[in-house]
């Protein structure tokens, strides 16, 4: 293909410390447990040692959150809380480049995405929910907070998932104990510094790092009033079981296997870009990724030809290079899972094609890949791969497209590409998915609710609906 000069973003702006403690009651403190390492998945370089919060540490964090809730945060007027949220939002904008570079280093995502998508949308969430803080009586969900929220987030959008969780919780008057994922703790710890910089009262936000055990300690802590989780369906089910029979309120945002449906009257150039964005954005580490392409039979050959041509131009490599389209796979574990499911796809008889790109020798990489000849029974059509791997199925009629799109245990998102507005509306009505995009894909906006049906979870995040999970409701 082409030779390009590298255009790396400088990492001089970030100051990564050799080790990090936990953020409890407004201070960084040593954990009482072990420590673990976080690495740069593009190079396998160890970035820092991070404390693994023990049960005792989680208990200290919950106690700090409870004190802050009772003494300060729930007593403060909504307008006062809003000032802190606005301040945090503005600091996120001011320190946007630092946050974006750190996110790309710890996560592996391309800088153009962390810079142009993740961080701006993070700031937008804090601005948006700051606006609700003094208007909760108009929310339709009452204005009484729940108390202490335990929040557990994944590694695919580390700071964005933090914003989705923390901004509405704080706006509603709750305090939080949040656990970032074990492979991507660094931007959450920088966010803790931002809370200090914003003079947020101690204990309103507590960040405890660690893996599954730390997550379990948060979920099962008796003084946590609300559990908010984004991650795998298996862990989501375990959390639902753990809180069953308690008073804890739960929202779960789990996996997906979205259909991206292309009709023969679609504007094909835009559709190709939408297919690429749908599955290769963020290396396909996206719960709402358009991982099943349903293309109308009459244009299937043309779409596949154009798609492969476009995929061959995707630039895979250094996440900090401003021209990179596809960065590193987040972890060795995730890479193993992507490889395993892709090998199964081939063994089941689907035809595999990968973009001809050179992959760096260190780090975790997977070339953008597409499978044709996929049938509904194939595991690559049913299971979330969570990587840059697209399965292509064909259909003849709108009804067949609906039947195939809905034939999944998930129901998070879907895409429809067609020239006809009436068809968009009728498809959207019949698709069992929380979000349906038309002639676009992967659009995120704080004013718009996001969430799933079926095994994709329950509850909504974003928009007015996102307040419901953090308020007691109209009657209480
Ligand atoms: P995971 O569900 O294990 O991890 C998500 C978060 O939950 C992390 O913070 C983790 O430390 C925590 N956690 C793990 N076990 C827990 C437990 N028993 N109790 C409480 N918290 C716990 O997901 P993982 O292993 O990182 O990825 C596995 C698969 O899950 C991926 O391949 C992908 O298919 C899916 N996934 C979906 C995401 C989404 O956005 N819906 C995000 C990340 C992964
Ligand atoms: Mg990392």
UniProtKB/TrEMBL annotation:
Compositionally skewed regions (Basic and acidic residues) per UniProt: 457-476
Q: Which Pfam families match?
A: Aldedh (PF00171)
Q: Keywords for this entry?
A: Oxidoreductase
Q: What are the boundaries of the region Disordered?
A: 452-476
Q: Where is the Aldehyde dehydrogenase domain?
A: 28-472
Q: Which Gene3D superfamilies match?
A: Aldehyde Dehydrogenase, Chain A, domain 1, Aldehyde Dehydrogenase, Chain A, domain 2
Looking up PROSITE patterns in the UniProt record yields: ALDEHYDE_DEHYDR_GLU (PS00687)
Where are the catalytic residues? 253
**Lineage: superkingdom:** Bacteria
Q: Name one GO molecular function term.
A: oxidoreductase activity, acting on the aldehyde or oxo group of donors, NAD or NADP as acceptor
UniProt family annotation: Belongs to the aldehyde dehydrogenase family.
Q: Which PANTHER family match?
A: ALDEHYDE DEHYDROGENASE-RELATED
Q: What is the name of this protein? A: Aldehyde dehydrogenase family protein
- Per the UniProt record, the source organism is Nocardioides zhouii
